[in-house]
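REQUEST
  id: r-88c1
  op: predict_structure
  target: Nucleotide-binding protein BSF38_01091
  payload:
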Amino acid sequence: MADNHSFDAVSEINHSEMHNAVVQAQHECAVRYDFKGTRASIEFNKKDATLKIEADHKGQLETVIEVLKEKMARRGVPVNALIRGTVEDATHDTVRETLTLHSGIDSDDARKIVKDIKQLKLKVQAQIMDDKVRVTGKKLDELQQVMSYLKENGPKYPLQFVNLT
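RESPONSE
  id: r-88c1
  status: 200
  body:
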């Protein structure tokens, strides 16, 4: 039995599942009756982790985003990983919005997570490692308490717990 156990709290999404969700949303936009003959479209840039959504008007833009969120939820991609941008006017009387996919834990949030873990008064240590937080302790029960606390009181973007040893 190991002396110390640990896990990493990270914020990342499965890019292949996100790609599949985007392809499904693009297909639905192509075949839906209310989108026929419109400029409703979704472009996914994997390298930058951004989505460019274009539509004829703001109402249609919101509908396209809802279709995308539905496909993301069905594929198991956390919907709250989407960071909305500003709606801007595009060519030919259309509107465009750029959405960003959140990845990694922000440094301010990482410091808050470490502080919150220390306030739990458990015998665990938390340390910031790049864009993740590593939590170590002797008892698995205490690590599970930290996990459940972070699930309920963590940041507004999705957290995953990996490398539990």
